[in-house]
Amino acid sequence: YTVNGLPTLSRTVEINPRSTATLDGATLGIVADQALGLSFSSNQPINVSHVQRELGEGDAQSYANAAATEWFLGDLFINTASAGQLYFETLYFHNPTAADTTVNVQLLFSDGAQANIPVAVSARGYAKLDLHDPRQAPQIVVDRPGANYFSVRATAVVPFSMLQSHYDLFLGGGWKTAGKNFGPLTPYNLIP
User: Fold this and answer.
1) 89 and 149 in contact (C-beta within 8 Å)?
2) What is the reported pTM?
3) 10-residue averages of pLDDT along the chain (192 residues)
4) How far apart are CA 44 and CA 190, in angstroms?
5) CA gyration radius for the chain?
6) Among 125, 80, 128, residue whose Cα is nearest residue 105
7) Residue 170 to residue 136: CA distance in whole angstroms
8) Half-sphere exposure of residue 186: CA atoms within 13 angstroms, side-chain side
9) Taking Cα atoms as reference points, which of 167, 182, 173, 163 lies closest to residue 62?
10) Dihedral in degrees, nearest 10, Cα atoms 22, 26, 28, 33
11) Which pLDDT tens digit goes with each residue over 70-98?
12) Cα gap 28→9, rounded to integer Å
C-alpha cells in the first residue's frame, strides 16, 4: 500500500500453461479504496496487465518490468477550479531497488514556469502523487489558479518506474500511460 499501517499481502496463484487467470481485489484480499502497488514473480515467463475502474471510467496498462532514472510525460492538464472534482492527474511510482530514494518531480508549464515536488519512495516500495490535491501539489492547485497545461520530468539517483493516470470528467474520459524513459532501461530481474 502507498500509505502506512495497512497489511502487506502475499498470495500464491497457480496458472496452468497457455491459460489466463483473472484476479480481483477480493480474491487478493486488498483493502478497498486504498492505493497500492503489486509486485509479482513467476517460475515461467508471464504477461501481466491490469484494469482499473475509477470515477466512472476504466483504463488498462501492462505492468512495468524495467526501470530508469529519468522519465518524461508530455501531456497533463488541470483546471484548478475543478481539481479533484472534474480533473484528476495522478503519478504512481515504484522503486524496485534495495535503497530508499526521492523522486524529483519537475513540473514544466506551457508558459515556461517550473515547479518541483519531491516524492519519497521506500526501497522496493510504492508511492503516488495526486497533482490535483492542494495538500500534495500546492504548486499547481494553489499557486496557479485556472487552466494549467504542463509536462513532467521525474528523476532519481536509482532506477524507478512511473505511471500517470488522467481523468477528465468534464469531457467524460481518462487514460493511463507509462511515459517515456530517458537513458537506459534496467530490467527488474537485473536489479539486486
Assistant:
1) no
2) 0.80
3) 62 78 73 65 68 65 83 92 92 95 97 96 92 94 93 97 87 81 90 90
4) 16
5) 17
6) 128
7) 22
8) 15
9) 163
10) 110
11) 999 998 999 999 999 998 999 999 999 99
12) 8
Q: Which three cell numbers stand for residue 181?
A: 524513459
How far apart are the C-alpha atoms of 112 and 1, rounded to whole Å? 35
Helices (H), the chain: 25-28, 138-141
Cell, residue 39: 509486485
pLDDT score of 168: 83
Pair 11, 42: CB distance under 8 Å: no
The grid coordinates listed for 31 are 483493502
Q: Which helix (H) or strand (E) covers residue 4, if one does?
A: none
Q: How many other β-carbons are positioned within 10 Å of the β-carbon of residue 174? A: 18
Q: How far apart are CA 33 and CA 36, in angstroms?
A: 9
